[in-house]
Fold this protein.
Amino acid sequence: MNCSPTVRRILCILAGVLFGAAWWYFIDAIIYNAVISDRPRIQWYAYIAPVTVTISLIMINIIDPSKLYASPFTDEFNARVKAWLFVSFTLGFFSIASAISIFVVKYPSSEEVGILVQPIIVLLSAFLLLLARYDPDQIF
């Protein structure tokens, strides 16, 4: 994806807005459940998915995207970076799967949908931020 610096800035801003909105929505669902709703309070395990997907976002964006396409004959970083990225995305998808299972089994009401939506939006923002940082001119 060869994009201008303006498009990169817009993608970074969009990723930040999505990340903030996702956490805002999750915190709103927690507060609504605690203050207004008459349902049982949300337990500690509902926080696992948001925290792990945020760790996944940090892990995904620690790497330098130009190292993904480094020459496999000159250095060993190519395989390590790809393995790190694989583990990071696996952690993100694990977070989505755990949010789905928690939402379906324990909190299937529309008030607590923030438990389900937050990890999906945060992983989307991680992917957008990775795309925004990618520069094809720095590959070789």
About this structure: The two ends are 16 Å apart (CA to CA). Helices lie at 5-35, 48-62, 77-105, 114-133. The longest helix spans residues 5-35. DSSP finds four helices and no strands in the chain.
